[in-house]
Write a structure and sequence with these properties.
Layout (H helix, E strand, L loop, with lengths): L2 H8 L7 H14 L3 E5 L5 H13 L3 E7 L9 H8 L5 E6 L3 H12 E2 L2 E2 L3 E6 L5 H14 E9 L14 E2 L2 E2 L5 H5 L2 H10 L6 E6 L3 E5 L9 E3 L20
Parallel strand pairs: 1-2, 1-6, 2-3, 6-7, 10-12
Antiparallel strand pairs: 4-5, 7-11, 8-9, 10-11
Helix pairs in contact: 2-3, 5-6, 6-8
Bound molecules: S-adenosylmethionine.
S-adenosylmethionine (SAM) binds next to helix 3 and strand 2.
């Protein structure tokens, strides 16, 4: 499915901005990750960019995980994919509590003679932005990623301090967080202290202080490349940022 057609289906659907969609869509076309995993789909906008690019490649699959409550979103991911005619590229998984439990189950399924067999070429983490949950998710996902696979974190700079209207965030009660936990961006700390220090990862890229990429290869560049996203063609330059209540 062409990028223009994705835009027609999505219209103003939160949360992924058109500039982010352009980056993600072109990443999939370029790197051809056949087996993709997404942690946090909300309405399914980012999922649709991934699946549309897989469709252009003529192969691939996306496992996408969220909370059970995501079924109640309007539109929900089922209706978006039905509209796009791309449901055959997608498996939807919903958990009561957290995608970390989905990852536990996947590791169990992939374990043969005590060793976890990798099964993904790409993982997009766009969920709760919390040290404990997403820090664990990183180590769990690592077990499932093939050599050469990419991982992408959204919300590198996101802090509770700058989202004071939210008293809780997907299982985390803000009142129970310490002052540092409220002030510091958790994804930045996960990326700097867990991902960049991990011996199996390299080729670190930070785009617009929002998206952080790493590749599961020990042999790449260990320094962080700070850059911006690929410029968006002029005809798409409308509403580039995420919109919506739970951003
Ligand atoms: C910003 S939205 C995702 C947006 C989507 N990737 C997009 O760009 O269109 C974050 C989503 O993560 C989900 N989420 C947050 N914490 C989660 C957790 N621990 N387990 C499962 N889903 C979670 C929320 O329910 C929410 O739908």
């Amino acid at each position: 499915m062409k990028f223009d057609a994705v835009r027609t289906v999505l219209q103003d659907t939160p949360y992924m901005g058109v500039d982010e969609g352009w980056e993600l869509y072109n990443f999939v076309l370029r790197e051809r990750p056949a087996r993709c995993l997404e942690l946090g789909h909300a309405h399914g906008a980012s999922s649709l960019y991934i699946a549309a690019a897989l469709d252009e490649l003529g192969q691939g699959h996306l496992d996408s995980v969220d909370l059970q409550t995501s079924a109640d979103r309007v539109p929900n991911i089922e209706s978006l994919f039905a509209l796009a005619g791309l449901a055959h590229y997608l498996s939807i998984h919903r958990e009561k509590n957290s995608y970390t439990w989905f990852l536990k189950n996947r590791i169990e399924q992939q374990t043969v003679a005590g060793v976890c067999q990798p099964c993904y070429d790409f993982c997009f983490i766009d969920g709760c932005k919390n040290w404990t949950i997403d820090g664990l998710a990183f180590f769990l996902v690592e077990k499932l990623l093939e050599q050469g696979a990419w991982i992408l974190f959204d919300d590198y700079s996101w802090t509770h301090a700058r989202h004071k209207h939210k008293t809780q965030n997907d299982g985390i009660t803000v009142r129970s967080l310490g002052a540092e936990e409220i002030a510091q961006p958790h994804v930045e700390k996960i990326f700097q202290l867990l991902v960049m220090q991990h011996e199996r990862f390299s080729n670190f890229v930070l785009q617009d202080r929002a998206w952080a990429w790493a590749q599961k290869t020990p042999d790449g560049r260990k320094a962080l490349e700070v850059t911006t996203k690929t410029p968006l063609p002029a005809r798409y330059s409308v509403r580039p940022r995420k919109q919506g209540i739970s951003d």
